[in-house]
Amino acid sequence: MSQAEQQFPRQNQARPGHQGQMDPAPRAEMEGYLGSGKLDGLRALVTGGDSGIGRAVSVAFAKEGADVAIAYLSEHDDARRTVELVEAESRTAVAIPGDLSQPEACAAAVQRTVDDLGGLDVLVNNIAYQAPADAPEEITAEQWERTFRTNVHSYFWTTQAALPHLGKGASIINTSSINGLRGNRSLIDYSATKGAILAYTYSMAQALADREIRVNAVAPGPVWTPLIPSTLSPESVEEFGADQPMGRAAQPDEIAPSYVFFASPQLSGYYSGEVLAPVGGETMPG
Q1: Which of the residues are catalytic?
Q2: Residues sharing a CB contact under 8 Å with residue 137, sequence separation 6 or more, in sequence order
Q3: Fewer Cβ atoms within 10 Å of its own Cβ: the N or the C terminal residue of the chain?
Q4: Longest dimension (CA), the chain
Q5: Cβ distance 224 to 251 under 8 Å?
Q6: What does the alpha-carbon distance between residue 29 and residue 133 come to, in Å, rounded to a whole number?
Q7: For residues 171-208, b (16+ Cβ closer than 10 Å) or e, as one string?
Q8: Could you tell me where the DSSP H helices lie in the chain?
Q9: Do 186 and 132 contact (CB within 8 A), yes or no?
């Protein structure tokens, strides 16, 4: 795909963004993906599972044989579509609305998952908030705290609530970002949270090794999700991802197989504390 083909129409949405309003619609329904039972009988909770990467992961998990609960903020139409896609694979789907920047909502999402699915084997911490700023002085204390509560604290709180339910062979997968690997001048607080997620992943992998719970992270490059038109300027949306070596942003269904890999004991049973970085050909030293 060339840069010219990659360009998106200028567009903007109110937060938190809705996949159904994006032009073009993201590829997040895993069309053509053939499961092979890699997650048969497993129960997963995917935060931010209503759209974007979370939707693609939820559908891929269902195609691989897992039942899936999705936690999301308030995008009910998007959540209903994800539920439909999971149920179309003859798997159980549970939609759980709530503000995961609050610890009570994180605990409630885990408990609802356990109650409705009968347990929990895979946790995908995936929700995210970002607000670009032209200069560091523009980042208010309120924004800094909101970004960390959403992107880091929710991962901690949800994992804490999940741990009593996770047995040997369970998997925790955290969504980081290329911005956590190399920073971003206009997304300082967001990049800081994504870097923190990497350190959290490394630390938790060590802490849970004796319980045989694997903890890994996926750090994607630019991906066409509702986060983009709901947080970037229309001009930035138009060129989103064009600066990558591949000349384009990823689609969510190109990222989801990384999560299948980490969720499957068969594929990644000896992986913990690792990061998969689908970043469109960008290379970084170190």
Answers
A1: 190
A2: none
A3: C
A4: 51
A5: yes
A6: 32
A7: bbbbbbbbbbbeebebbbbbbbbbbbbbebbbebbeeb
A8: 3-6, 52-63, 76-87, 103-117, 141-148, 154-162, 178-182, 188-207, 234-238, 252-263, 265-268
A9: yes
β-strand partners of 96 = 71
- With a CB cutoff of 8 Å and minimum separation 6, the contacts of 11 are 22, 23, 229, 234, 237
Beta strands 275-276 and 214-218, pairing class: parallel
**Upstream peptide bond of 229 is cis (omega within 30 degrees of 0):** no
Question: The tokens of 285 are what?
Answer: 């030293």
Indicate the pTM of the whole model: 0.95
Task: Give me 200's structure tokens.
Answer: 């959290």
* Pure H helices in 26-123: 52-63, 76-87, 103-117
